[in-house]
Amino acid sequence: MGKELNDVAYDIALKQFGNKTFSFKELWTKVVSANRIKKAEADELIGEFYAEIMQDPRFVYCSNNTWKLVDFLSVNDTKNAENLLYNSVADDVYEEGYEQIKKPDESNEEQLEENQREKTEEEIAAEFGFDNEMEEAYNDMNKQMMQSEEDEDDN
């Protein structure tokens, strides 16, 4: 069995592009040529190949449809890529009609725990504006309704 396409692509990129950036189209053309893949088969494989390259840690998407091998990234380039992937994505997640999602910080841990605990009946009643007077009136009304139902059953 031959090499996987992304392994062939890595070898080609290493030999032919080295530390230079390259386009996906340039890489794909060279992979198709090296493996003598027919056009019909190439049309079927291109999507899967692109997904493999995206997930292959040896390839890094730079910008404007340019790629580079991770072997040739400087430390500064690597830091920039990490910051782009891991910091800005979490901070800039917006959806129309929603506020920015904020990550809880450690100072709010106690508040989060307080919000997650079960509330007592008294807290629920206070939250919805019920007080003892209202509860007593509600209970009296229930007793009267039950009494009138009993009276009807007796007749």
Secondary structure layout plus pairing:
Elements: H1 5-17, E1 22-23, H2 24-35, H3 39-55, E2 59-63, E3 66-69, H4 75-91, H5 109-116, H6 121-127, H7 132-154
Helix pairs in contact: 1-2
Any overview of this molecule?
- With 155 residues, this protein is mostly helical.
- It contains 7 helices and 3 strands; from the N terminus they run H-E-H-H-E-E-H-H-H-H.
- It has helices at residues 5-17, 24-35, 39-55, 75-91, 109-116, 121-127, 132-154, and strands spanning 22-23, 59-63, 66-69.
- Strands 1-3-2 form a 3-stranded antiparallel β-sheet.
- Strand 2 (59-63) and strand 3 form a beta hairpin.
- The longest helix has 23 residues, at 132-154.
- It is elongated, with a radius of gyration of 33 Å.
